[in-house]
């Protein structure tokens, strides 16, 4: 019996070190929740992890995150090896940033969510896509896309410090440090404080 307990203990210790913002009992709780989600997931990942659908349902019910595009991007930032499956390590380390991350952690995370093609920049098109999905467009608005384009230009004016027409991480970081509300400038991808 001692042998079968060992890997679990090792994993808890390892995750407590790598997910710096959680203590040992919190890591154990998150691992139990992970096991429940894996059991609920009837996916083909054979107990190793759970898929996008379970992930989205969980973030939706736990944090009230509803935007499909944002949820897909959050899934991509958690799923670091890009295999469509969230492992226990990806789960605990991802939640460490989401729930307890420093401003630095959260800036990197948000930037990654908004950088849709992963090229290290948030382009006009990426801003447009994210904003288009996160804004409530009224049916009365004749040209909703025009309003979104105007917002993109305002965001660029405020955040594009080197004036190259796109946001690098340095631009994003400078803007967020000057005004912390800009952390989620292109859509809600962090849980509510509550």
TrEMBL record:
<dbReference type="InterPro" id="IPR018247">
    <property type="entry name" value="EF_Hand_1_Ca_BS"/>
</dbReference>
<dbReference type="InterPro" id="IPR002048">
    <property type="entry name" value="EF_hand_dom"/>
</dbReference>
<feature type="domain" description="EF-hand">
    <location>
        <begin position="147"/>
        <end position="182"/>
    </location>
</feature>
<dbReference type="InterPro" id="IPR011992">
    <property type="entry name" value="EF-hand-dom_pair"/>
</dbReference>
<keyword id="KW-0106">Calcium</keyword>
<dbReference type="InterPro" id="IPR028846">
    <property type="entry name" value="Recoverin"/>
</dbReference>
<feature type="domain" description="EF-hand">
    <location>
        <begin position="66"/>
        <end position="101"/>
    </location>
</feature>
<keyword id="KW-0479">Metal-binding</keyword>
<dbReference type="Pfam" id="PF13499">
    <property type="entry name" value="EF-hand_7"/>
</dbReference>
<feature type="domain" description="EF-hand">
    <location>
        <begin position="102"/>
        <end position="137"/>
    </location>
</feature>
<keyword id="KW-0677">Repeat</keyword>
<protein>
    <submittedName>
        <fullName>EFCB1 protein</fullName>
    </submittedName>
</protein>
<dbReference type="GO" id="GO:0005509">
    <property type="term" value="F:calcium ion binding"/>
</dbReference>
């Amino acid at each position: 019996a001692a042998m079968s307990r060992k890997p679990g203990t090792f994993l808890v210790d390892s995750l407590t070190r790598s997910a710096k913002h959680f203590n040992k009992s919190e890591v154990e709780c998150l691992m139990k929740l992970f096991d429940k989600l894996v059991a609920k997931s009837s996916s083909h990942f054979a107990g190793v992890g759970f898929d996008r659908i379970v992930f989205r349902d969980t973030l939706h019910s736990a944090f009230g995150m509803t935007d499909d595009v944002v949820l897909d991007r959050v899934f991509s930032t958690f799923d670091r090896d890009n295999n469509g499956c969230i492992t226990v390590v990806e789960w605990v380390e991802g939640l460490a940033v989401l729930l307890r991350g420093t401003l630095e952690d959260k800036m990197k995370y948000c930037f990654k969510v908004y950088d849709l093609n992963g090229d290290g920049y948030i382009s006009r098109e990426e801003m447009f896509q994210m904003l288009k999905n996160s804004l409530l467009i009224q049916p009365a608005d004749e040209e909703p896309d025009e309003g979104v384009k105007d917002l993109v230009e305002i965001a660029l004016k405020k955040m594009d410090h080197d004036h190259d027409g796109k946001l690098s991480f340095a631009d994003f970081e400078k803007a967020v440090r000057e005004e912390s509300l800009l952390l989620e400038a292109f859509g809600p991808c962090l849980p509510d404080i509550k």
